[in-house]
Design brief:
Layout: H1 2-8, E1 19-20, E2 23-24, E3 43-45, E4 51-54, E5 67-71, H2 72-78, E6 89-94, E7 108-110, E8 114-118, E9 131-138, E10 166-172, E11 190-196, E12 211-212, E13 219-231, E14 242-245, E15 251-255, E16 261-267, E17 274-278, E18 285-288, E19 296-302, E20 307-313, E21 318-321, E22 326-329, E23 331-335, E24 341-345, E25 348-349, H3 352-355, E26 360-363, E27 372-380, E28 383-386, E29 390-395, E30 410-412, E31 425-427, E32 452-465, E33 470-483, E34 489-497, E35 508-511, E36 514-518, E37 524-528, E38 537-541, E39 550-553, E40 561-569, E41 576-579, E42 584-588, E43 598-602, E44 607-608, E45 618-626, E46 642-644, E47 650-665, E48 673-682, H4 689-694, E49 696-701, E50 706-719, E51 725-735, E52 740-746, E53 750-758, E54 773-782, E55 785-799, E56 805-810, E57 820-827, E58 830-831, E59 833-834, H5 843-846, H6 852-856, E60 859-860, E61 872-876, E62 892-894, H7 898-902, E63 911-914, E64 920-924, E65 950-960, E66 966-972, E67 983-990, E68 992-993, E69 1000-1007, E70 1011-1012, E71 1019-1020, E72 1023-1029, E73 1031-1037, ...
Parallel strand pairs: 13-19, 21-29, 34-40, 53-63, 65-76
Antiparallel strand pairs: 1-2, 3-4, 4-9, 5-8, 6-9, 7-8, 10-11, 12-13, 13-16, 14-15, 14-17, 17-18, 20-23, 22-26, 24-25, 24-27, 27-28, 27-29, 30-31, 32-33, 32-77, 34-37, 35-36, 35-38, 38-39, 41-45, 42-43, 43-48, 44-48, 45-47, 46-47, 47-52, 48-51, 49-50, 49-52, 50-51, 53-56, 53-62, 54-55, 54-57, ...
Amino acid sequence: MVATKRGLLSFFILLGAPSIWGERILKQSVSRIRPGQTPFSLTIKHGPDSQGIWTAWFNIDHPGGNGDYERLDAIRFYYRDRVCPRPFRVEARTMDWVPAGSTGQVVHSSAQEGFWCLNREQPSVETCLNYAIRFLCPAGSLPQDSKVLWSSWSKWSECSAKCDQAGVQIRTRNCLVESLQDSRCQEVSEEGRRCIGPPCTVCNMTCSMGRVNAECDTCMCEDHLLYGKVSLPDGAPAAGVAVYLQAKAPKLLTVSDGDGTFRVPGVCLDGQTVLQVKKPKYKTALVTVPQSIQGSTSVHVRLKKADKPYITKQPENKARREGQGVSFCCEAAGDPAPEQYLWFHNDTLLDPSLYKYKGNLVLKNLKMDQAGQYFCKTSNDAGSVKSQGATLLLIAKDDTPCNPTPDSYLIRLPHDCFQNATGFYYNVGRCASDTCVGTLDNSLRCKDTTAHCCGVSKMETQEIMCAGYTLPIKVATECGCQKCVKTKATVRGRAVAFDTGEPMRFGHVYLGNNRISMTGYKGTFSIQVPTGTDRLVLTFVDRLQKFVNTTKVLPFNKNGGAVFHEIKMLRKSPPVTLESTKTSMISLGEMEGDDPIATLEIPPDTFYRQNGELYVGKVKASVTFLDPRNVSTAAAAQSDLNFVDDEGDMLPLRTYGMFSMDFTDESTTEALNAGNVRVHLDSAQVKMPEHQKGMKLWSLNPHTGLWEEEGEFHLDQRRRSKREERTFLVGNMEIRERRLFNLDVPENRRCYIKIRTYRSERYLPSEQVTGAVVSVINLEPTPGYATNPRAWGRFDSAVTSSNGACVPAFCDDQNPDAYSAYVMASLGGEELEAVPSSPRFNPLAIGVPQPYLNKLKYRRTDHLDRNVKKTAFRISVAKPTPNVAEESNGPIYPYEKARECEVAPYFAAHFRFYRVEGDRYDYNTVPFNEDDPLSWTEDYLAWWPKPMEFRACYVKVKINGPVEVNVRSRNMGGTHPRTVGQLYGIRDVRSIRDMDRPNLSTACLEFKCSGMLYDQERVDRTLVKIIPQGNCYRESVNSMLHEYLVNHLPVAVNNDSSQYTMLAPLDPLGHNYGIYTVTDHDPRTAKEIALGRCFDGTSDGSSRIMKGNVGIALTFSCQERDAQQQSVFQSLRNLPSQYSASPLRERIAVKRPSRNRVVQIQGKGVPSVRIPQRVQ
């Protein structure tokens, strides 16, 4: 009996890596051991005098994606104590026990690295098999008794008896030695016990027709016959459709033939029997068999396409201490709605039977090895989808949640504040705003009630000696865990034509099915990103029908703040008239001197109305094609060219053209659908031969922004003339609710490009700019001419964070020139400059060392022509060569090293853009990076009192005189007892000369608005001093501004004619007063809008050209000084080297805070206010 049962064993389970639904799973299992093998391994001879021990078989990867990777470092990550430190041999085989060397596939192995098989190296369309490997370790390097020879007993089987009868239950165990004749396998492997079957139940089911079946779950009528036909949505026959009888356990009845018909005998025609009609990628149809007294009847089923699931709630990053609990949540929508969820930890499936999860995963009593990435996966009839990964950060019970020591962070000092040790920079410290473990309640929620981040917990006030005055500064001295700063993320921009820049006026902006905004007269829009959004998908609809409806996936700054996007839109092609009863041909892609990329063939009688009726008559057809051979169209690409594969992974596409189709009746009042439309793709236009095999038709889902497969292409040769024979790829499609289509190839050769943006050409870490949009156009080179791009294949964008941006791009490790890319960056709609490549090629400035930089062939766009804009560069995206030190540290990262790219330190190689710095300077006593709202600190002296609302104020100052001068605003506390006389900050700006009036220049100068401070308890009217730097005197003050200040007490008195002092108004006054005020969720946006109004001299307009004689608040007259009469500020600005050895420089030092000197400011006929002042 024992031998018989052993002979029936026909499968094995790999140690530590059993499979459930094709996924790796975390639960204990058993494995076979070869003859003579001790538990867990086998001692064999290796060489003449050495012995070794084989490990168990490991299988941690599947051949999807790029291939099958059984890497030693990954195996150690999951099974650290099951592999020796230095194995000296590796053996691989398939899951069907075929040795790797006998499969005929190209594989690689190394005892130090493991085993790997790459799909792209296999012949034809073959992919790698699923391999398992084991390692040969030195004798004694593995535990010999860590596992017994027998597996655990299985659960008792179900009772073999029928109801109320006696039977037997059996349980078994397996001997882990592979040879069943081994003497150690002679013990009992099977046990049995008597049992009684389940109680008999009476079938209470009754049938109006026929009889009840043996399972008592449906009625049967032997003399009845059901005929059926199944059609696709466009009416075409649906072959291979499975028809089930709906019951407790659905029973397969039949499958439809090539004509979509089926025949089922024995189904009762009682009006109660329900059939399930199933076809992959279509919704399951439920059909009730009609009641009939005849012996037969028929049904017609029209299938409806299922919508792939998409994630509506993403799991969130969490931080916990060891021993605490955590909950991750995931929700998805689709048609039909997905019901089952699977959760993964570090790409390994968590056993549903152990963790008892559904849409939420609860982990209690956390251990340190549970830290890492978690994501969910769910499926429906159309496919699968995976959520974004959520990071669980775990720290030990007694560890500090944040690094208490601030990082170094340099701010720039005013031009007249040079320091001996640090020059014009000062280290104020900074705390990284990472997620940390704060005070939590006991409940386990999807979203923590209060989010905690590392931030500044202690600050110290220091004073810096400048030229003639002291400058207070607050320096971070300690970091701690505290409540995260609440911020709002905003996306704004313009929607314009890609060719002429014509705005899409008063168009609609949709988020899903909801209209959330409209564009303005200039095509502008502004949208607050909903909380919890991970992927922002917006659709822009032109009400005037000039432009093609455009769906965009817009990256945004998840830390808050505004990001500007310019939406490039394609004009609709003029409609042509077609006859619905005749075959019509429409070319896709009209390039001078080149053939069309493809042709649409619309057979006769293809159009039908929305109600399904065939349409006969004239058809107005507008087909707009986005031709990738025109590089200027890349920014107008729809969505972000991604799709979700059958495993739920989001993967990129490489396009060969997109087209939008609109069909209406002759009166253009009703939209028409079309079925069985053919696309003939000229294979000569596909320059990469490997792409012809993978070419598919795709349609865009406007709700998810993802492309979904419509059909495949097959080869079709057609002779166009006696002398020409061309090869075409032919695909079929139907045109229903979706009107945007794509000729695309999935492309798995992917990398990331590391980009950083800066405020100036100094390229300092503290001057990095966040919120800049970096875009990459992937190019396909003409064979033999790497610098002459033939077409673009993909357009990607990313937003810079405090650590730059990683932008995806196609790359190749065999041929560095296989893919090249244009890279550009913009901030607030303003293009940033790339580092020059000529006349001097400076790797230190570019940010990439040699010789890798030469391999990448970096060239700025003006490399050969200095008249070309300097706002982009081009590189060959050469994938880094493994084990080459110069290429292992950026700026190109393999796709699987995305995390390394994101966290790469500043000194790692990267490409750079910078903003052409204007003549302005901002200084805050409490340091704050306007590009990073999370850097805001609670303090009474903070320039911006609230991190979710930023109010910018500007005053317009006119200068009468022959020279441009610097104008400074010195902003101090005015009426609040906690800040009176203390400095908020300084703003410097240089006046702009009027081109028509040589003796006139104008400055728009920022000052701190009056209002509530951060505690929101009391108003402070900021004391603002406006000081032209030079030989100046005040000529006049705007009469309306003067009257307002006099009528709103108290009033600051102006005894010094070289400057102007005021207590800033509380009200947003406007251009008639020369004051410009704007409030926004983003500080940079508020300042930009207010500055535009100030330049324009209006309260609602905007200009980038200074209008120097309108909307003025103050007028000064400034005369040019001799060189010996220049101010310290001007001297330092013009000739800073003169002060390198001056006595003044020796006296500049950092002082401790001293007590304020209080001065009485008096005025005639108005109340006075006591204001502490520092020396100017």
